[in-house]
């Protein structure tokens, strides 16, 4: 990943350019809140918006994109099929519903949200069909550990191009990162700021002061220098703008290693091997 500015991209296995910095809208309310949030991001130069069916705000995301001056073709839209909709036919139906809500006739990236046992292979078969039909430019997964990926590989005709995972200084999962890189699967971070817990880590405070940046900016820059696509969420215009101001400094190899060393294998969200939704 060549980190340049907010327009920079990571190249996926099929050659598609995926913006390495975007806006996540998890827990952003449907209606004016999500419309404003996406609009602020697009105004600031973001070109990657990440949502999901279960977030229940796809319609607002679609409205904001539809009403913005930026051409649809220049915006990278990701959404995800929810667990209750997994399976071949139900995934195809869920995809159509998401397209309608997002006011678009194709997606840039469609993900399986969680590895639902006994279902994710059929769900993946549906994603492969959507990809073959040209209705989505790239397909991938979210919350898949190495054994989930290896199991999927046995049935897949097309390998996942992205794996969106919980990723932050307390949960690095370097072995999984390396495995994904080995198989040309782009790693992407959710909860990069540990739901605010990064602000309580003394080392991050010290390093942020050293580089003259905020803790948020430090951590998001660390993501990018780890070759991890990142999609921080915010509903505040100034914070959305500030989050993206991560292109005027470089974290040294020593400090990158120090942040890596904070790893506690500590999850903020559910365990992909143990979830009940």
Automatic annotation (TrEMBL):
Any Pfam family hit: Aldo_ket_red
InterPro entries: AKR, AKR5G, Aldo/ket_reductase_CS, NAD(P)_OxRdtase_dom_sf, NADP_OxRdtase_dom
Catalytic residue list: 55
Keyword field contains Signal: no
Binding residue positions for substrate: 113
Organism superkingdom: Bacteria
Cited PANTHER family: 2,5-DIKETO-D-GLUCONIC ACID REDUCTASE, NADP-DEPENDENT OXIDOREDUCTASE DOMAIN-CONTAINING PROTEIN
Protein name: Aldo/keto reductase
Lineage summary: Bacteria, Pseudomonadati, Bacteroidota, Chitinophagia, Chitinophagales
């Amino acid at each position: 990943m060549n980190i340049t500015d907010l327009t920079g991209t990571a190249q996926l296995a099929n050659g598609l350019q995926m913006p390495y910095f975007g806006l996540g809208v998890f827990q952003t309310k449907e209606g004016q809140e999500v419309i404003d949030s996406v609009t602020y991001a697009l105004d600031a130069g973001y070109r990657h918006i990440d949502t999901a069916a279960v977030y229940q705000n796809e319609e607002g995301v679609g409205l904001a994109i539809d009403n913005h001056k930026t051409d649809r073709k220049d915006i990278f839209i990701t959404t995800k099929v929810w667990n209750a909709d997994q399976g071949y036919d139900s995934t195809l139906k869920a995809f159509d519903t998401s397209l309608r809500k997002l006011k678009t006739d194709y997606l840039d990236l469609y993900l399986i949200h969680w590895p639902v046992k006994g279902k994710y292979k059929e769900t993946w078969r549906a994603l492969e069909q959507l990809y073959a039909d040209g209705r989505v430019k790239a397909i991938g997964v979210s919350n898949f550990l190495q054994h989930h990926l290896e199991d999927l590989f046995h049935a897949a005709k097309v390998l996942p191009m992205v794996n969106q995972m919980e990723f932050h200084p307390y949960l690095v999962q370097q072995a999984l990162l390396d495995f994904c890189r080995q198989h040309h699967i782009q790693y992407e971070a959710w909860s990069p700021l540990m739901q605010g817990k990064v602000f309580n880590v003394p080392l991050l405070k010290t390093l942020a002061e050293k580089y003259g940046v905020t803790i948020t900016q430090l951590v998001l820059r660390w993501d990018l220098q780890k070759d991890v696509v990142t999609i921080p969420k915010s509903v505040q215009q100034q914070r959305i703008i500030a989050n993206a101001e991560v292109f005027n400094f470089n974290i040294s190899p020593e400090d990158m290693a120090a942040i890596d060393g904070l790893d506690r294998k500590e999850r903020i969200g559910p365990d992909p091997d143990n979830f009940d939704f």
